């Protein structure tokens, strides 16, 4: 159930305590993919899982500006501080819980949000009236999928399948040619870079030429199945905090 | 230029310092109108004005959860604290300004956001690197329009014109019958109520039976023209703070 | 009962749960009216209403620095951030409520405080142990009163009646001559200005030559009667939050 | 120059960079002295010093609610959190400095404010555009004065001299009889108490029977002279931060 | 019981509700004493008292960076804002209380921490689930001890006794020669200085040549006995907040 | 150069802009390893690297309470909120940078700190006057090392080598027997647990019976070499933020 499209009476009548909050970002994804890539992909996965799940699940509007300051040197990238981001997500989850949707999956489309979401999910679960857990779709596409990158094969494929207008097909070669192959600037296990412009000329990491709508369909299938499994697990999960030792 | 749909290279190439941030809310709008009404209407007005403006203007994704705690007794209403809301809007405007879009109109669709937006626009204009000003579409539809209400003729008409799926036509009579005619619970000029459930049974204020798609088209015309005028004015406005007396 | 003038034993013995917090500002009011105009006027109205009310009501000391950054270009204007202002008012109301004065009217003398007071009253009423509501005296003087302005006929008249030393009578002509007639710099319904120095040379909006002590007496009568009515209503008001729909 | 009583044009014409902020508290002072004692006394000392100083000095309105939670068990005591208190004082000093009054003495009448004022003065001096220093009047009355206490001889005397209405003369015996003689509940040098109700029945510490208007006059003389000396020193003080070693 | 050295099972088995948090600073102490002086001394006193106390007491790791911005002009001085410092201490005490150690003595070695610790102890005692009280060792060494100073006889002696490596004996003469004898830059009772570099050339206040390991032993004896007395008192103290008057 | 052990004059004379901040935690590490394990190990690695580095490097005192609320059900675990933790680390780094040590490696011993440290390092690098980067020692011990776990072979070995008193050798069998083998409670790639007590009986993850002092020596060798390499790299690193695209 998409909350934005429903009326309050329809939400009132929905019998579920499950909710999803799609969480994206507005940030550069190379010369070929739209700035809204992460939001579009998070929405796609959340909607597909909502459709496939037997039980109803409330889906909030997407959070479309997230933790993306690392891409600020690229035009159009929007961001909020991590602190504001966590507060915004926490407030949304608390209002979902106020209506009884107190088991919430944060459906995430952006690597830069992962740590902040894990932190805020912990704060919510330990201190508020809800249980929340983040799910990042591209972590759930299986071992055989291409590497994640940024604006690479994974993200581009899902766009090609579900939001083809968001891909400039004629720029894929350029995107690949001037992109880089690995995220970050590493010394051992330490990433020395704090801005993606330190290691990629055009914002791309990976090879979007390997993308295809067919691959996108497979990825969506894998991610949404994993999300359905997670939702079913969360619905039954014992969310009581454990006793002290 | 819709930032989410554009690539960073396209945003880079846009020659403008104007931007709009559509700002809505996810909150009850009676049994007949979608919870996303305010966001949909803000987006409609912003997009129409962007189309009509001769010059390019960057349009950020909408802020779809706002200041709506007053509607919390109605299922599905989502809200953030005023403080978080201001921080979220401020961060978005600051990142727009980082890219040179430093004259920003906050295109608002929700009465409950008005005070918070005026405050944050003042903070931005006086202390950050941008000039920001809020525009609330239903304040700009002229003297002859029906009264604003909540889920009433104005909002419903604009939905019927631009997002007809968001209206449950078969519930308009019920919506009107159980709604109220005036916002608030007043003693003189003071509103004693802090929750809309104190004065409306079904969330409606006004009479949505007076709504029509034709009226919606007229409203959109008026509001988007006013917004175009505002954008043209803001583009030329002297945004220097005045000298001390 | 003026809390500052009373001893704690006298406050302990007062049988009421009503309180008022006078809230003003220290800000320019033209060349003819004192910077403390808003505080003086708020105190005058609160004290008069306290005298007229049959039942006792606790009156806290005035908050004399408020939301006034918009007047900063004029010497002597003092201000606090909106956030600090709200915290300061909230803390005062919470300590009043701690002693059982948990129905509180915020008696306000400054337009710039209105939005912040409504927000903090909502926060207090929804989340703390008190019910609070703002009352702005010049909104309660009836339809026939002159327009509000700033340092205009309304504010000057009340000073002339209750605090004549705060008016420089010999500067009224100058005040009017160099003042302006309308608050703000408007494009349609949008105020483009964030500093009053953008639209008034000497800080005046309105015509203080139309002021008189007699008019001030009438205004005080109207405002204090409205405030007495409000206090009586608040004393009986059902302050429970409404049930969920 | 009392800022509240002056017009902005008069403040503009004042040739000084000195300012004072009187800072009090609204808190129990025994059964015999008004809750506003600390504010009244701070104002008295500041006004007297302003009169005696050869040069002009801007005097802001008093901060009349301060750090007084330790007196909360006594009716009528108002307080703000230390954090809000510091923000409120800092904002006032920053707005004074905005107008050029950037050497500011915080004239304090309440022991509970001392630590918070020293902290905020340090923050202002090191990080803002002003130099600020706190002055607590009863620390400046000389070695021969009675001990400070709370509602004792010192505070009561100054009220008797400058604000006799604030003293209930007929309750002095009771005040002394049920009061205590020493502030706090001590184990060695550590005060175990965090609420004054832990060690005083009626809120009094000291013996207000030893108070007199004559003593009050002497105390005012001593404190205001010390404050004049301080203002003259601050006017000439090198407020540059020292170089690094 | 030193928490850091114990396992969680050992802490679980300890039968006590008493805890200590040693609190120091990393700041200049003249050319002869280590920057860690305050932390080392606080740890010494806390450990000695823990040994001497008949009952067990949990000792947390030391907070080694505190309120020391006043020494910033001297190399190596580290500091945190007062606000962060209070939050850090409060969080530690709250986690101690979570495990049942809800009577906590903050064992302090630095004058600059005193006010912040008193404030946070009040906040904890009034609003959290613990009773906390600060103890500053050099306030508890008796009337006959040398004056406190900074890097003077007191602090140096305790180092010489318990941490002799932290003293450069060959620089004591220089330390005394270029040091000063009184803390601060005073006008009457007001300290005009906010940086120690305003009144001491080398950071020393007092005369470290008067220090000795023997004196250090005596000081430790006095301070740790006073702390043992305090712990025994706190263990029995009625920590209920008093009833309202 | 250990800042705590040095005098300010010695720090002043050190010719380097490199610093390290050891960052640990006080949290359960099973029945066999001390609660201070993470702090001890972080200090060991930082000190060893400081010794091996040809150039001097300033080493601050360790932050010994970190992000550890997930272990709160186990006695003795201390924690601070993530927000306070970041502020505390940021303040320390800012004061290091104030003295010219503006290339800072945060030497971390606790997995729960990793995300918060990456966030605060980004904030510092982008917005303050320093470059900061986190280094987590157990990520740098090579492919052949045992898996990390918690209180497992890695951490126990380093303790056995450098702080043997922190290990209770006679409880290793019990520690292994009642411990678990994998961190978390997983559904696909999502960890459903927010408290370690949800998946480990005695706090152990991994097998501490595989630990040895010899292995600890090898681990220390690997980690400290990696840290020396990182320090040398950071010393030469171009810390300018990249230009906008």
UniProtKB/TrEMBL annotation, chains A, B, C, D, E, F:
Keyword DNA repair belongs to the record: no
SUPFAM superfamilies referenced in this protein's UniProt entry, alphabetically: Creatininase
Cofactor(s) this protein requires: Zn(2+)
Database matches in Pfam families: Creatininase (PF02633)
Keyword Hydrolase carried by entry: yes
Alphabetized UniProt keyword annotations: Hydrolase, Metal-binding, Zinc
TM spans (from-to): none
Record InterPro entries: Creatininase-like_sf, Creatininase/forma_Hydrolase
Protein name: Creatininase family protein
């Amino acid at each position: 159930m998409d909350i934005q499209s429903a009326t309050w009476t329809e939400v009132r009548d929905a019998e579920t305590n499950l909710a999803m909050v799609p969480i994206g970002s507005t940030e550069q994804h190379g010369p070929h993919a739209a700035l809204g890539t992460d939001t579009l992909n998070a929405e796609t996965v959340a909607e597909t899982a909502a459709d496939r799940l037997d039980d109803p699940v409330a889906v909030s509007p997407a959070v479309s500006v997230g933790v993306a300051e690392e891409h600020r040197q690229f035009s159009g990238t929007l961001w909020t501080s991590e602190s504001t981001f966590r507060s915004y997500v926490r407030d949304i989850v608390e209002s979902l819980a106020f209506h009884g949707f107190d088991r919430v999956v944060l459906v995430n489309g952006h690597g830069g949000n992962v740590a902040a979401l894990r932190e805020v999910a912990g704060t919510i679960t330990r201190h508020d009236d809800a249980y929340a857990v983040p799910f990042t779709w591209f972590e759930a596409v299986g071992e055989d999928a291409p590497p994640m990158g940024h604006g690479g094969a994974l993200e581009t494929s899902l766009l090609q399948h579900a939001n083809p207008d968001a891909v400039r097909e004629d720029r894929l070669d350029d995107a690949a040619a001037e992109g880089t192959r690995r995220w970050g600037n590493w010394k051992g296990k330490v990433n020395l870079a704090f801005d993606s412009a330190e290691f990629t000329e055009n914002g791309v990491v990976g090879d979007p030429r390997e993308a295809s709508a067919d691959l996108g369909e497979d990825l969506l299938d894998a991610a949404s199945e994993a999300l359905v499994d997670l939702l079913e697990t969360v619905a039954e999960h014992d969310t009581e905090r454990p006793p002290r030792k």
